[in-house]
Amino acid sequence: MNWVTGVVLALLVASGVMVFVRLARGPSMLDRAVAVDALLAVVVAGLGARAAEARTPYTLPVLLVLAFLGFTGSVASARFIAVRGAEPPERPGGQEPAGSGEPEGPVEPEGAERPERTERTERPKRDDGREGTAADGEETGG
Questions:
Q1: pTM, two decimal places
Q2: What is the C-alpha separation between 8 and 49, in angstroms, rounded?
């Protein structure tokens, strides 16, 4: 083993330890998912460095499978986190996020009268110009 390989392996071990600490500490699920992905990348890089040093191509299928699993796991965890819905980040000082507690939609000034809704009395026109709708060749009259 030459000194370049020793330096590369030492850096990979150091990065693996740091990633493992992030995996253990968290604090969120997203941090842990990224840490698992990074740890897998460190393992793949270590196996690649070992294969390059030994000049053996036999670890290439293992590297490909691990890379595929890492990619699939990253996509699956991102999809899981996106579907589950991330909680909104807390504001410093316990403030609520902007817009919370406010009514949705346009705000009308006090004392303004709302126009009454008028009901639609027309029926939609069919393609042949008559009123009513037709579904599957049935006539609904009009």
A1: 0.55
A2: 8
